[in-house]
Design brief:
globular, Jelly Rolls, 10 strands, 1 helix, four-stranded antiparallel sheet, alpha+beta
Length: 146
Amino acid sequence: MKNILKLIFLTSVIISIGTTAQDNVELVAQCAASAGNVTYLKDFVVKLDAGVPGGKPPSAKFSMVLSKNTQYRFSICTAPDSEGEAILQLFDMNVLQGSTYISATGKEFPFFDFKCQKTGVYHVFISFKEGKVGESVGILSFVKKL
């Protein structure tokens, strides 16, 4: 009996992992396709829990090297069952270079273009407005050489 219960549990875990991975692949493909006429380079898959009230919203950080004289596009797509809307921000050191959300106006954008002026390490942060729970995908794409 114990072996049967273990087998049922293991099967349900494998099915849930497979379903999540398939959902992520579909979300990445949809987000990459919505980026426009650009070349896909990298994706950032994020799943975050809700933040604590009054605290800083949870975020995921990704680092990458970007090349001088290149235009990149950063896109963000939120999974349909997420409570919050995803925000993607690009930083060089501690300086914000671009964002899909402008807090002063409350405007959201599905992507922004970044004209890289110096080769170096840049950091992408993905979080959810108001620290809500959610899943999202960020996409880095090549637009053109400047």
